[in-house]
Design brief:
alpha/beta, eight-stranded parallel barrel, five-stranded mixed β-sheet
Length: 769
């Protein structure tokens, strides 16, 4: 049997990140199409020949960035002059970022109590003009309030400081925050960016002197990032998973008093229920806050992802200091020790305790944690995690992050109700632009799904949102949608809100078609198989580069979040392990594709305006990827029928040939798009392109070769009345046959699987394996 290679041969042959040039170029680089071709209506004021009167006090000149942006907007669109005044003023407001806009025949006044209210107000003026296709503003008074105060995204292309590259963005000399990139984020309502780090690298310690030995360089860069982001109303949030467990014999032997829950193999969780453990947590947070007082906050996964403190794992604790306490109380004590450092510091930053792994706890334990958690900590819960929804008449479970599943999950609701009852601060972790379902496009244009999510968040008094993981953060209409939803006063009219967003990008003349298309995209995307394995290993991300196998190879499927795995896997069942049959996945993908096709047909044709054309590029790439994913599922279903001799083998092989030919067309079509749009195929967590022209063309040649070699070989076997695929007989070299046991799994015998000592056992009943 042929063996799989260990690394994608294209892993080290990545193309340059051409989208970086877009981030460096001005946001306003083209005049808006169909601009000023009508007269002002009765309820509007014409703002032609407008000028900006900067009356808001701004000693630090933080507003220079938005003032310069507004000047350029007016210049590009030919409305600069000296007749209509747009004035910024100070007015005492109740909350940060609140602003009021008053429009009269003679002037427009933007008033706020802080620079960021003025910034948001000027962006709103630009948006209104774009929506109205000209220098027109609605008469009267507009008052806006940020209901979701913290809106945190991440740099789309900065390194993740994880395997396989382990590059630390705080240690190199690269600027990952070009001015116009930050300007885009500001226009979309973002006011935070999170940066992943590790306390042993970043924070010097007197208690654990090994930590922070090279911290000066990282701290210095974090300060520079903080100062630069501040000019756009954005604050960095330090994200870490702390305190780090004692994972080496050296650390466990040197600091026995910090040993907590025994993880085995000489590894221990960090116990914060000791004086030294508490002291370290307090010291680390205090030091970080004082070294970088301008950061917006510190986000820590305090439960889950990997071993940290005693309360960070599952509910059974064997630590002698913690085992007799409820696990919610153990975790709360750790959180309080960390928060104590923030309280004692000069900073007023937020501490967000992210309980990522709460799926392993009971709801009662989660509620106990929320009740006992410190009142001044922001409690963040995954919005979709452990949610249930019906697909094709069967209940499915949402694990991890989802955009296609609206939520909120039952776990989030339990957390939120207790937080509201206990008057605790509640944050939501969600995905705004895209998620594990499909992360090789910059975003999935389904703003209606975000409307549903944020409507639920408002009902539970969510104060802040972490909008992405390493992916799902490209500046786009989805970011803009989230930013606007944060300021939305009520959720009475979904269609009106979608029309508002559509107008900003497409103008008032195209709104109806665009919203209809978005509604079809939403209908399509809700059919994505709600199955974590399908999003982790399925063909939606990079199907157009998958090397289909007519002759079974038994190769594993590639991980969707990595760019290092070879994409020649054929064990399609690995993508369905969490609850779908192959037939169900095919049905759902078919529904996805049909509704997406319908939506594509409604969008206006290319206009030459980049803010519209980039959306057309994205929706076409998604259409190709959906079609490719469906073809791959159909191909392996047909291969299984061919191997089991279940149908007309000649017809089956002909059908599979047509699927391969269609896949050649898909690869060619996506290659054409990639050459025009350098964002397509890039996966932020994979730190590289999952597909790109060279890789797509390589797949084309591979499939053509298979049509010339493997297909005639199988065709000849069929003509000779031989089994089409020997693999299914278990007679190929290195293959092994196993007899299935009819009975309980406990009574089944173990079978050796490979030379490494792996083994398995299996049984069948009338319904399942």
């Amino acid at each position: 049997m042929k063996r799989n290679i260990t690394c994608d041969p294209f892993f080290d042959r990545q193309p340059p990140l051409s989208f970086l040039e877009e981030f460096k170029s001005p946001l306003h680089s083209q005049p808006i199409p169909e601009w000023n071709i009508r007269e002002a209506e009765k309820n509007e004021v014409s703002c032609m020949s407008c000028f900006l009167n900067r009356k808001f006090p701004d000693e630090e000149m933080l507003l220079d960035t938005i003032y310069d942006d507004f000047f350029l907007f007016c210049k590009i669109n030919g409305i600069s002059g000296n007749e209509y005044e747009i004035r910024t003023e100070y007015r005492k407001m109740d909350c940060f970022e609140d602003y009021i806009i008053e429009v009269s025949e003679y002037c427009c006044v933007i008033s706020a109590g802080d620079t960021e209210g003025i910034r948001r107000g000027l962006v709103y003026i630009e948006d209104e003009m774009q929506r109205r296709n000209g220098a027109f503003l609605p008469k009267g008074k507009i008052s806006r309030h940020a209901y979701i105060k913290s809106r945190i995204t991440r740099c789309f292309f900065s390194p993740i400081n994880r395997a396989p590259k382990f590059q630390d963005e705080l240690y190199d000399d690269i600027d990952y925050y070009p001015d116009e990139y930050l300007n885009r984020l500001a226009h979309e309502g973002m006011n935070g960016v999170w940066i992943y780090t590790k306390f042993p690298d970043l924070v010097p310690s007197n208690i654990i002197p090994e930590y922070g030995r090279d911290s000066e360089r990282r701290i210095s860069k974090l300060r520079r990032i903080t100062e630069k982001c501040r000019r756009y109303g954005i604050k960095p949030y330090v994200f870490a998973i702390e305190p780090v467990a004692l994972a080496t014999p050296e650390m466990t032997n040197k600091y026995p008093e910090l040993r907590g829950h025994d993880l085995g193999d000489g590894k221990y969780n960090f116990c914060t229920n000791t004086e030294k453990g508490k002291a370290y947590c307090k010291e680390a947070m205090y030091t970080l806050c004082n070294l970088c007082p301008g950061i917006g906050g510190i986000i820590i996964i305090t439960m889950g992802e990997r071993g940290t403190a005693c309360g960070s794992g599952r509910m059974d604790i064997n630590c002698s200091n913690c085992k007799d306490k409820p696990i919610g109380e153990v975790l709360s004590q750790t959180v309080d020790s960390l928060m104590e450092g923030v309280r004692k510091s000069v900073s007023n930053c937020e501490f967000i305790s992210w309980s990522y792994g709460h799926r392993f706890w009971s709801n009662d334990a989660i509620k106990d944690y929320v009740r006992s958690a410190p009142d001044d900590v922001m409690l963040m819960q995954n919005f979709e995690e452990m949610g249930f929804a019906k697909q094709l008449g069967r209940e499915r479970i949402a694990i991890d992050y989802w955009l296609s599943y609206v939520g909120p999950s039952q776990m989030f609701e339990a957390t939120a109700r207790q937080a509201n009852e206990s008057n605790k601060h509640l944050y939501a972790k969600t995905q705004v632009c895209c998620s594990h379902e499909l992360a090789t496009v910059p975003y999935v244009p389904v703003p209606g799904i975000l409307w549903e999510k944020y409507k639920a968040m408002r009902s539970y008094n969510v104060e802040g949102v972490m909008q992405c993981w390493y992916f799902g953060n490209y500046p786009s209409l989805m970011n803009k949608t989230a930013g606007e939803l944060a300021f939305l006063r009520n959720y009475d009219d979904k269609n009106a809100f979608l029309r508002h967003i559509a107008g900003i990008y497409w103008g008032e003349n195209n709104v109806d078609k665009v919203v209809d298309a978005w509604n079809l995209f939403e209908k399509s995307y809700r059919n994505y198989p709600l199955n974590i394995m399908f999003s982790y290993y399925g063909p939606v991300h990079d199907g157009p580069v998958w090397e289909l196998q007519l002759l079974p190879k038994n190769f594993p499927l590639p991980r969707s979040w990595q760019s290092i795995d070879p994409v020649n896997g054929d064990r399609i069942g690995e993508s369905l392990l969490s609850g779908h049959t192959l037939e169900e996945a095919i049905e759902l993908c078919d529904r996805m594709l049909k509704s997406w096709y319908d939506g594509c047909s409604l969008l206006p044709l290319s206009s030459g305006y980049y803010l519209r054309d980039e959306q057309l590029s994205v929706v076409e790439a998604i259409r190709i990827q959906f079609r490719s994913a469906l073809n791959i599922l159909l191909f392996y279903k047909a291969r299984d029928e061919l191997g089991r001799n279940l149908s007309d083998n000649v017809a089956l092989l002909s059908y599979m040939r047509k699927l391969v030919e269609d896949e050649i067309s898909n690869s060619h079509a996506l290659c054409f798009l990639c050459k025009k749009d350098g964002r397509l195929g890039y996966h932020s967590e994979g730190e590289g392109y999952k597909y790109f022209p060279d890789k797509l063309l390589h797949r084309v040649e591979y499939l053509k070769t298979m049509l010339k070699t493997e297909f005639p070989m199988v065709e000849k076997r069929i003509e000779d009345t031989l089994p089409p695929l020997e693999y299914y007989l278990g007679i190929e070299e290195d293959s092994v046959s196993y007899a299935l046991y009819h009975g309980s799994i406990e009574d089944a015998s173990w079978a050796d699987f490979d030379k490494a000592g792996s083994r398995f056992r299996a049984c069948v009943d009338r319904k399942r394996l």
